[in-house]
Amino acid sequence: MATSIPPHNLTEVIDACLALLANPDISIDELIELIPAPDFPTAGIIFGLKDIQQGYRTGRGRIIMRSRTHFEDISKDRQAIIIDELPYQVNKAKLCERIGELVKEKIIEGITEIRDESDKDGMRVVIELKRNENASVILNNLFKMTQMQDSFGINMVAIVNGQPKLLNLKSIIEEFIYHRREIVTRRTIFELKKAKDRGHMLEGLAVALANVDEMIAIIKSSATPNEAKIKLMDKDWESSLVVNMLSRVDVDQVRPEWLEPSFGLNVNGYRLSETQTQAILDLRLQKLTALEQDKIMNEYQEIMDIILDLLDILRSPQRVNAIIGEELEQIKQLFGSKRKSEIMYDAFDIDNEDLIKPRDMVVTLSREGYVKTQEVSEYRTQKRGGRGKAAASIREDDFIHSIFMAHTHDYVLCFSTLGRLYWLKVYNLPEGSRTTRGKPIVNLLPLQQNERITSILPVKEFVDNKFIFMVTKFGVVKKVELTQFARPMNRGIIAINLDDNDELVGVEITNGNQEIMLFSDSGQAVRFNESGVRAVGRQARGVRGIKLKDGASVVALLTTDDENAQVLTVTENGYGKRTPVSEYRLANRATQGVIAIGVSKRNGKLVSALLVNDNDEIILITTGGVLIRTKVNSIRIVGRAAQGVTLINLNQNEKLVDVAIVVEKEELDQDAKDMTTEISDDDGLTTLL
Questions:
Q1: Confidence class of residue 622 from pLDDT cuts 50, 70 and 90?
Q2: Taking a C-beta distance cutoff of 8 angstroms, is the pair 659, 375 a contact?
Q3: What is the dihedral of CA 542, 495, 499, 533, to 10 degrees?
Q4: CATH topology for 68-147?
Q5: Where in the chain is the domain with CATH 2.120.10.90?
Q6: Cα-Cα-Cα-Cα dihedral sign, residues 30, 33, 34, 37
Q7: How many CB atoms are closer than 10 A to CB 334?
Q8: Which residues have C-beta within 8 Å of that of residue 124, sequence separation ≥ 6?
Q9: Per residue in 27-63, is it b (16+ CB within 10 Å) or e — as a string?
C-alpha cells in the first residue's frame, strides 16, 4: 500500500500533540485549527483549505500549491511576472522549459522572455511580457497550464500494530502519542534496571566498608581469586550500615529482578552476590578512605531516590504524559520555526459571517472580468444630464459590463457565457474605492478558457416554489427550480446547455406565476406568462422565448406581475424613457413582440430595460467607467415608439452599457442614523429588479 504524508510545521504539530495530551476528547476540527495545512520546505502558497481539511478528516485529500509571484514594471507600459518560490517538488529548470514550449506553440501569448536570475540570495525567475499585456490574466493561464500551480495528494497510510491503516489527523497524532508513551516507558524501565544494578553494587561496597579488615584477611589467606570469591560469598556479613541505608525504602522494590532470594539482606546478615563479590575484589585501596566511603553513601542515596522516582513514573500515566509534554516543549523551543508556506483562503473557505459587518454594496464587473464591491454611500444623487463620478479605473480596451446592489451576506450566483453557474459570497468579493480597478474574477472562480461571467444574481437563501429563469442571446428561455442550485460546488455546475455561439445573457428569480418580458437590441419586446414555460432540469436546453430579427440578440429579461409598473428603456447613446407595462400587449412566447423604443441613429441600439417607479433612483454606467446616479421621476413617461430623453451626456466614442436601480431606505437606530440601500422582495430573496 502507498502512503503520501506531506511535511508539516514542527511548531504546529507539537501544539496539536500537546492539545491532545491535555484533552484526549479533542475534536478533529479543533486540531485543524492548530494545524491548518501542511508546511513545505520550498515555501510557496497553499491555495484553499477545503480539500486539505477533507484529507485531515478522512485520511485522503489534496493540496493545491501555487508559486509565490509578484509583478514588476519594466517600463511605462510593460510588466514582468517574477517567480519567488515554487511548489513543493517542482523542478525550476523543467518549469522554465515548459513555459517556453507553451509560448513557442502560442498556447500562451504575451510573453517575450523567460530568464532565471536565481542566486545565493534566493530564487528569481523573470517572465517579461509584451507591451500593454494583462499580467494577471497571463499569470492565471500559467497557473492553469504549468506546475506553477501543482497538487500534492494526501494519503495518510501508516503501519499500526503491524498492519497498514488509513488514519485521519486525530488518529495519526494519537498513534504518535502512543508511540511516545511506549518510548518513555521502555526508557524508564531501562533506566530503572540500570539504577537497581548500580544500587545493588553500592550495597556490596557498603558491606565491604563495614567489614574491611575481615575481608582483607580472607582475601590474603586465599590461594586463588576464585577461592577468595567463594569464601566471601559463603559468609553472612555484618550489615548494620546497609540496614541503615535500606531503612527508608522497600527492599523488594530496589533489588534487581535477576537477584536470587538467597542473596542480600537476611536475618543473619548480608549475603553477597557474585556480582557484588567481584566488585569487592576489583576494589582499589583508595576506595577505602573515609572520603570515598562518604561518596558511596551519597551516591547510594541518590540512586535510591532515582529508583523511587522511576517506579512512580511507571505507576502514573499522568506522569508519562507530562514527560512527553515536557520533551515536546523542549524540541519546540530548540527546533521550532515559523510557517514557510503561506495559506491563501479561497472564496469557499471563508464561512464565518458573524465576523462580517452587514452592509449594502455596489458590485461592478468589467468586460475583462475585473470585479469589486463599494459601499453605496460613495455615490451622491445628481440631477438628470449631469457628468457623474468615475465608478472604476479601467483600461482603454475594457469597460464596466455589469453593476448591481447586494447585501454583504448574500450569495452571489455567477452565471457564465458558457451556461455554467458558480457560487460566491458578497463579502468574499474584493472591496475597492471608486478609482480602483478591482481584481480578476478568474482568481475567485475556476473558469474555463474563453469563459467569462455574464450574469450575477444575489440570493439570500434557497427556498421552495421559486425558480431561476434564464434567457440566452438567441432568445432561448429556461426555468429551473431554485432549490436545484442550493448546493454550492467549487468547480461550478451546468445551469443551461447552449447551442453553438449562443450565450447566457439574463437571469432572474421568479415565483412561477409572473409575466416575462424579453427585450432585443433591435428595440423589440415580447411579454408572456411565465406559466407558458415549464420547469426543467439543470442540463436541459430550454425553449424559444422570442422570435428575433436577423442579426438581433436579446439584451434584457424582466419579470413582473403589475400592469401599472413602468419599463425604463435605455439606449447606447444615453437616451431613455419610461413606458407603462400595460402598453406591451400580452402575447405568447416565441413571437416577435412589439416596439419597445425607437431605434435610430440618434439613439443607437437598445442596451437595457428595467422595471421602475417614481420613487426609484438609477445608476448609469458607461464604457468610460463614468457612473451617474439620478432620479427616475425626472425621466419622461412616453409611448413605446418614442425616442426618449437624454439620461447622460456622453463623450465622443463613449457608450452607455448598463443601468441598475437604487432604493433609499432610512434606518433609525439609538446611536446613529444611516442611509442604506436595499433591494429585496417579501420572501427574503434579494434580487436585482
A1: confident
A2: no
A3: 10
A4: Gyrase A; domain 2 (3.30.1360)
A5: 353-677
A6: positive
A7: 8
A8: 82, 83, 84, 116, 117, 118
A9: eeeebbebbbbbbbebbbbbbbbebbbebbeebbbeb
| Its pTM surpasses 0.85 | no
| 8 Å CB contact between 593 and 585 | no
CA-based nearest residue to 287, from 225, 215, 236: 215
Q: Which residues contact 600 (CB under 8 A, 6 or more apart)?
A: 643
**Tens digits of residue pLDDT in 636-676:** 898 887 888 999 888 888 888 888 776 443 332 332 233 33
Closest CA to 631 of 650, 607, 611, 615: 615
Superfamily of domain 207-316: Topoisomerase, domain 3 (1.10.268.10)
In CATH, which superfamily holds the domain spanning 353-677?
A: DNA gyrase/topoisomerase IV, subunit A, C-terminal (2.120.10.90)
Nearest partner of 477 among 413, 541, 567, 531, judged by Cα: 541
- DSSP symbols for 144-184: HHSTTEEEEEEE-EEEETTEEEE--HHHHHHHHHHHHHHHH
* AA identity, residue 527: R
3-state secondary structure string, 580-624? EHHHCCECCCCECCEECCCCCCCCCCEEEEEEECCCCEEEEEECC
**Residue 202 · residue 275 · CB < 8 Å:** no
Q: Do 550 and 476 form a contact (C-beta atoms < 8 A)?
A: no
Return all residues near 460 (Cβ < 8 A) that are at least 6 apart: 407, 409, 410, 411, 680, 684, 685, 686
What pLDDT, on a 0 to 100 scale, did the predictor assign at position 479? 94
* CA proximity to 155, closest of 59, 89, 63: 59
Element (H, E) at 102: helix 92-104
Alpha carbons 518 and 538: distance in angstroms, whole number: 21
In the chain, list all ranges with CATH 1.10.268.10.
Answer: 207-316
Cα radius of gyration (the chain): 41
* φ/ψ of residue 156, rounded to 5: -85, 75
- Contact (Cβ atoms closer than 8 angstroms) between residue 5 and residue 156: yes
- Give the Cα separation of 682 and 665 in Å (integer): 15
**Tens of pLDDT along 396-422?**
445 565 677 778 878 888 888 888 899
Task: Give residue 181's identity as a one-letter amino acid code.
Answer: R
Helix 169-210 × helix 317-335 angle, to 10°:
110
C-alpha 523/C-alpha 189 separation (Å) is: 92
